[in-house]
């Protein structure tokens, strides 16, 4: 993969359609941290992207124009969300970024590190201090298309299963990049 770190050919997909079961089903995209919605943080992480698609309900306004879509059927999990987002892109990307809406410490600099690490590989994902892959990464769009399951197989599919055949770089998180907001306690801890 010939990787150009300018925005050309890089698009982003924000996954914002989860159930937030440990947060009483709240729309995580609308949850605020330091006066900004989690969706605003996620969209800002794609500052360098040509285009951003948010997979989830259109309930939060963004400063940057984005496209909102929902997978069919809704709440199909990260694989269905990612592929629905890719299908909704107006441009044909060379590199697709994916980010869970509940990771507010992932920034444009994080995405740049991921893109750099993906050079010559099928992609790169952020890993936490224990080496666990986080839902923050970049993928070569052509390689993603090769491993893509049929529409029926996407719903409920585990992300690690989709990515198993890809050559992915692991990028260690710095600071709080790997922190996600899965509970009200997580949000409280980030606000400290």
Automatic annotation (TrEMBL):
SUPFAM superfamilies: Nucleotide-diphospho-sugar transferases. The keyword Transferase applies. Keywords: Transferase. Coiled coil: none annotated. One of its GO terms (molecular function) is transferase activity. The keyword Transferase applies. Residues 12-165 form the MobA-like NTP transferase domain. Pfam families: NTP_transf_3. It comes from the Bacteria. This is NTP transferase domain-containing protein.
């Amino acid at each position: 993969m010939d990787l150009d770190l300018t925005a050309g050919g890089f698009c982003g997909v924000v996954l914002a359609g989860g159930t937030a079961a440990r947060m009483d089903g709240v729309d995580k995209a609308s949850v605020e941290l330091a006066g900004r919605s989690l969706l605003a943080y996620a969209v800002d992480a794609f500052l360098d992207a040509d285009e951003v698609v948010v997979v989830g309900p259109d309930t939060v306004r963004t400063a940057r124009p984005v496209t909102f879509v929902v997978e069919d059927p809704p709440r199909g999990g990260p694989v269905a969300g990612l592929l629905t987002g890719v299908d909704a892109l107006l441009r044909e990307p060379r590199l697709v970024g994916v980010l869970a809406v509940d990771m507010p410490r992932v920034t444009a600099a994080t995405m740049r590190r991921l893109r750099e690490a993906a050079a010559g590989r099928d992609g790169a994902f952020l890993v936490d201090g224990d080496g666990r892959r986080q839902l923050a990464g970049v993928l070569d769009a052509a390689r993603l298309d090769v491993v893509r399951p049929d529409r029926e197989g996407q719903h409920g599919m585990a992300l690690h299963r989709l990515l198993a055949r890809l050559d992915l770089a692991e990028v260690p998180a710095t600071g709080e990049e790997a922190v996600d907001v899965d509970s009200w306690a997580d949000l409280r801890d980030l606000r400290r």
